[in-house]
Amino acid sequence: MAILHIDGDGFFASCEISLNPKLKGKPVVTGQERGIATAMSPEAKALGIHRGMPIFEIKKLFPTAVIVNSNYHTYGMFATRMYDIVRRFTERVEEYSIDECFAILEDKDREHTARLIKTTLGRELGMTFSVGVAPTKVLAKVASKWNKPDGFTILDNSSIHDFLKNLAVGKVWGIGPQTSHHLHSLGVVTALDFIERPERWIRENLSSPMLETWYELKGTPVYKVHESDDIQKSIQKTRTFPHTSEKKIILSELSHNVEGACIHARRDKLETKRIYYFLKTQEFRYKRCEIPLDVPTNDPMTILSLVQSTFDTLYKSGVEYRATGVTLSELRPTSLNQTDLFGEVVKNLKLKKIFDVVDKIDRKFGTGTVSLASSLTSVGRRHLHPTRRLNLPFMGEVV
DNA sequence: TCTGGGGTCCTAGGACCC
DNA sequence: TCTGGGGTCCTAGGACCC
């Protein structure tokens, strides 16, 4: 068996060009709304524009660049088409990220199949992909990165050695700046240096994930290709806002994030058993709070009241904050047949019905049509909200 | 114009128990 | 009052990735 890794080249920019052929051949950059470049067309790269470059700088230095807002919904649809195309050739596909996937190929015809997948993707999606084929995920990943864009690299046991000789250890998937720096100080510079150290040396000098990386790089598979839709571990919503120390605004931001996370959870029919939220100060310090729940929920009011009752342990008046975030963790599928004490489940069931209705309205009229009144104090977004108010039981005021 | 948003996994150290 | 050793569970936060 061989593992295939597919990576969209400049994916976001490629999606924009695929939808709007007039952009073809131009230096296209996405990420306007974020203030930094998130993806570039080859022409933009040729100018010297790179990921993370500030948009104002691009505008100044490269007036010919076409800068567009990212449209994640569109990119998600392209991603779905990409996975579907790959599934025509093999059922065993892992949807790794919005522009990447792994798949398992049978050894016979692996090169032919891989090439066929690549050309089919290119033809049907109107963009190029870089492809790596190797015995393990880590090797497939470095292989696909090797000849970007439009690359096609096959690694087998006979070619691994030469390939890793020319690969900086920090380029390996899973080895970041910290580990890379540490390895350099120990005399390990290339990926080949790394795999040539004995197992004992890895165990003594590095953390356990590095041992897995070590095996993978040597061609022994450790990481599985996750074919099934495994249940998500956590849902997170965060948002940055113009810095403020006003409690009301911060709570309202938190409320917005809680709502967003709960909408996501209900859409995926998940409930959380543990919530965690944070305030981020203007100095980029995090104040966190974690709350285990007795009864799983995906109801924003329940979560919000817990947040409110603990908020003062994190919040200090006079401190400037720039972002908040909420994570729902220990997720589990919604189960309607739980029998439980304390009547909390009964209360949650009632809420569930209401939010089912809310979700239907959202599907019909767009997300955010109905939102909790407590989310409406957000800085600079007030004017976006509709003004009709009504009162629903258990939800407080709804707009 | 410093630094977005969404994830996963691991580890050190504290709390608590025997 | 001070001394142990051993174990588990939990939390804060680091590291990495897209």
Oligomeric grouping of the chains:
single chain
Distance from first to last alpha carbon: 55 Å
The CATH homologous superfamily name of the largest domain equals DNA polymerase, Y-family, little finger domain
Mean residue pLDDT: 86
Outline: globular
In terms of DSSP E residues, the strand content is 15-25%
Helix/strand-derived category reads alpha+beta
H/E element order: EHEEHHEHEEHEHEHHHHHEHEEHEHEE
Q: Specify the number of helices.
A: 14
Task: Characterize the structure shown.
The chain has helices spanning 11-19, 42-47, 55-61, 72-87, 110-125, 137-146, 160-165, 177-185, 191-196, 199-205, 208-218, 247-267, 300-314, 344-365; strands spanning 2-8, 28-30, 39-40, 66-68, 93-97, 100-105, 129-134, 152-154, 234-244, 270-281, 286-297, 321-333, 390-392, 396-398. The chain is globular, with a radius of gyration of 24 Å. It starts with a strand and ends with a strand. The chain has 3 domains: 2-152, Reverse transcriptase/Diguanylate cyclase domain (Alpha-Beta Plaits), CATH 3.30.70; 157-218, DNA polymerase, domain 1, CATH 1.10.150.810; 234-398, Dna Ligase, domain 1. Helix 12 packs antiparallel against helix 13 (300-314). The strands form 4 sheets. The protein has a 5-stranded mixed β-sheet. It has a 4-stranded antiparallel β-sheet with strand order 9-12-10-11. With 399 residues, the protein is of the alpha+beta class. The structure holds a DNA duplex (18 and 18 nucleotides).
